Amino acid sequence: MFELYPKSGKIILKMKEEISPKGLFITIEGGEGAGKTTQAQLLREFLAPRFPTILTREPGGTPLGERIRDLLLDPGLRPLNPRAELFLFLAARAQHIDEVIKPALEKGMIVISDRFSLSSYAYQGFGRGLDINLLEMMDEFARQGISPDLTIYIDVPPEEGRERLSTATPFDEESLDFHRKVREGYLHYAKMHPERVKVLDGRGSIEEVWARVKEAVEELIRRWSDEASNNGCS
Ligand code: TYD
Known about the structure:
By secondary structure, this protein is α/β, with parallel strands linked by helices. The protein is built from 8 helices and 7 strands, in the order E-E-E-H-E-H-H-E-H-H-E-H-H-E-H. The N terminus is likely disordered.
């Protein structure tokens, strides 16, 4: 943020002009039928009148990402090798980071992503059983140092989530056992990173879950906007 200028023996602090206040990156996660897409939209509607906000999704968010999404959700290409599946999610993420997420954060925007890295951890790591350490390294390579300020995990037991589904993707058609492992992955990660991941009960009406989501983000948004306006004034 500041540059040190050693001039005639004095140290002067000079604000770098090109640096704008940092944006805020929020990701929403959940298993099948958790209602996270609805909650992500409500969050965007809540924030957009006050802050420059974008809502994006994974896999997707870019023309390449949307094409990769079509491949991943095509039942005709199943079964897909789990490593190939991971590479496809990561390819979509790498493009998403460079084309959408990083530029928006650099402009000081709020970026909401419907799914992000934690989905790979839960689905490919726990669900498919791929090596977690390797997966995290590969994901880091795709993310290039960008990570969410807050992840909201909307937790619904897989048995209940399944009953709420209207359409089914190849992932939805996986066994209940697969979805139990995915949930275990989410909860495991959340337990290890309580400061970054908020687990919310996804049961109840849309309004009830929204009240929980709103409460989880409000404090963070307040701190972030205070910080941004302080930086803007100094
Ligand atoms: P989608 O239709 O977006 O499902 P949902 O409405 O539940 O978000 O399909 C995306 C599927 O991709 C979803 O089942 C989870 C899966 N997924 C992974 O397995 N790994 C990942 O890294 C991501 C981003 C998604």
